[in-house]
Amino acid sequence: MNKTKIFTLVFLSGCFAGPLMARQGPAAPLRLTLEKALQSADTINLQVLMANARVEQAIARIAESQADLLPHFDGTVSGGRQTADLRSEGLSLPGLHPHVGPYNNFDARPRVTMAIFDFSALARFQAARKGEKLSEAESGKTREDVLALVADLFIDAQRKQQTVKLLQALLARDRMAYGLSQESLSQGTGTQLDTSKDRSDLEQTQYLLAQAGQQAQDACLDLEAALQIPLGRALVFVDDNDFLKAMEKNAQGNSGARANADVVMATWQLESLKADQKTAYADFLPKISGSAEYGRAGASPERGSNTYDVGLTVSVPIWEGGRTQARLKEARAQVKEARENLEDATQQQEVNIAKARAAIEEADDLRQAKAQQRRTAQRSLLIALQARQVGSGTVLAVVQAKAQLALAEDDDHEARAAWIMAYIDLLHAQGGLRKLVNFKEEE
To answer: Which H or E element spans position 17?
Structure first.
C-alpha cells in the first residue's frame, strides 16, 4: 500500500474522531518530538492495527487447514417408521409379497474419520504457515510505510512552523523600513518611489505570512490525522538530539536491502506461491483415509443390536476436466512472476539505499555550510547591537541583522530537515524504521 492510500485512510479516521473530541474545549499545546510521533504511529495508527488484525486472521487459517490432518469425530442418531418394496432392492422371493412394512428403524452411532495419507492437506497446511509469514511481512511493510509517512509529515509541519517564524521576522523588518521611508518622505529626504517599494515589500511579506500560516495549519492537521490526535490542537515541535544520534547509529548497523519491507514481503510472497505450487502437485496424488463407527441399530434402542464398521478409503484423481493441470500451470507462472518481483524489489531498494547515502553526504556538507552562515549572521547581529549601544548604529540596522539571522537560521533548519529525511529514507530502504523505534524503547 502506498503512502497516499495510507494517509487517506488515517486522515478520514482523524476527521471523524477530531470534531467529537474538540467539543470538550481547547487543550494545552502538545509537545511532540520525532521519536514520540513515530512511537505513536507504531502503536495506535489505524493501518498498523488493521495489519495486525490480518496477521491474526492468517494464524486462524493455519488452525483451519490443520484440521484436515486431525481426527474428525461426529455422531448420528436416526429413527423412523417406513414401508419398503423389496423389488427396489432387486429382491423377488416366491410366495412373499414384495411390499414390506410398516416397520420401525433406529440407528445411533459415533464415527471417527482420519486422513492417513493426504499430501494435499499437508501441503495446504504448510502453505497456510507460509501465509502467516506473508501476513507478518505485509504488516511490517505497513508499519514501515506509516513510520516513513509520519516522519515526512512531522518534518513538513515543523518546517512550515519555522517558515512562519521567519516571515514574522521579515515582517518586522519590512514594517520598520516602510515606517522610516514614510518619515523620510514627509521630511523631504526620501522619494515616493522608495516608499512605494517598501510598501510593496511589506504587503508581499504580509501575504506570504498569511499563506505560510495556512500551510502550517494544514500540515499540522495532516500530522494530527495520521497520529489520531484531536484535530486543531496546537503542536509544539521539539528537537531531540539523542534520538537523532540513535537514528545515525541504527542506520550504520544496516547495510543491504535484505531487511527492506518490500523485499521481505516479496520473499515471503515467493515462498507462499511455492507452497501453493506444491499443493497443486499434491492434488495429483492418491488419498487414503480411515473410518470407524460403532453403534446400535434395529427397530428401537431396546429391540436392536450393536454393530460396527471399520474400513479404509482410497481415492485416486484421474481426470477432472483439466482443472488440476490448469491450476498447476497457473501456480508455476505465479512463482516465476514472484521471482522476478523479488529480484526487481531488491535492485530498486539497493538503488534507494545508494541514493539515500549520497543524499546524507550532500546534506552533511550543506549543514556545515549553513551552520557557518548562521554563525556569521549571529556575529553581524552582535555587531549591530553593539553599534546601537554606542550610538553609531540604527534600530533599522539591528532589525535587518535580526532578519538576516532569521534567514540564516531558516536555511540551517532546511539543511537539518534534509539531513533527517535522508536518514529516514535510508532507514526505510533498509527496513530499519521499526528497529529504530524498538531500539529506543529497549534503551
So the answer is: helix 3-22
Give the separation between CA 420 and CA 226, rounded to whole angstroms: 19
Alpha carbons within 13 angstroms on the beta-carbon side of residue 377 total: 20
Return averaged pLDDT per consecutive 10 residues of the chain, 443 residues in all.
47 43 60 89 68 68 68 85 81 77 84 81 80 83 87 94 93 89 84 89 94 93 87 86 87 76 89 87 84 83 84 84 85 91 91 91 91 92 88 84 91 93 91 77 46
> What CATH number does residue 144 fall under?
1.20.1600.10
Show the domain range for 226: 3-69+119-163+204-284+322-442
> Length of the chain in residues, anyone?
443
Q: Give the separation between CA 371 and CA 351, rounded to whole angstroms.
A: 30
The whole-angstrom separation of Cα 212 and Cα 390 is 37
**Contacts for 129 with CB less than 8 Å, ≥ 6 apart:** 62, 275
Residue type, 67: A
Alpha carbon 365 to its chain's center: 33
Give domain status of residue 74, yes or no. Answer: no
How far apart are the C-alpha atoms of 119 and 140, rounded to whole Å? 32
Nearest residue to 1 (alpha-carbon basis) of 70, 51, 39: 51
SS3 95: coil
Cell numbers representing residue 320 in the block: 477432472
